[in-house]
Amino acid sequence: MSYLKGVTAVVNLVTLEPEVSAAHTKSAITAALVRIARVEAKNIEVTTQPDGTVRLTGTVNSLHALRRAEHAAWAAPGVYGVDDQLVVLT
Question: Is 8 among the domain residues?
């Protein structure tokens, strides 16, 4: 470690954000929905925005399936917000 005369502290405010495309995020979420057997991925439309926001629209058969779809969206890389517009069929 080297020292600079007169320097008493260094504050590092640099943050790194991964570069993830909206298309990659959408495909990751869709693949996760397909892996979840209880969620019918064909009834869910995934829309992604460049700012990391994801919108889920469509229908699911239960509240549990809705939560799992929501979780899959949040777990995708590059997601900073989820707008859940899913409807639970009764």
Answer: no
Output the CA torsion sign for 24, 46, 75, 33. negative
Compute the half-sphere exposure of residue 70: CA atoms within 13 Å on the CB side of its CA.
15
Burial of 46 (0-12, 13-18, 19+ CB in 10 A): buried
d(CA 53, CA 50): 7
81-88 sheet: strands from edge to edge: 44-48, 53-60, 81-88
> Is 2 within a domain?
no
pLDDT along the chain (90 residues), means of 10: 80 80 86 75 89 93 90 91 93
Instruction: Specify the number of domains making up the chain.
Output: 1
* Domain that includes residue 69, residue range: 22-88
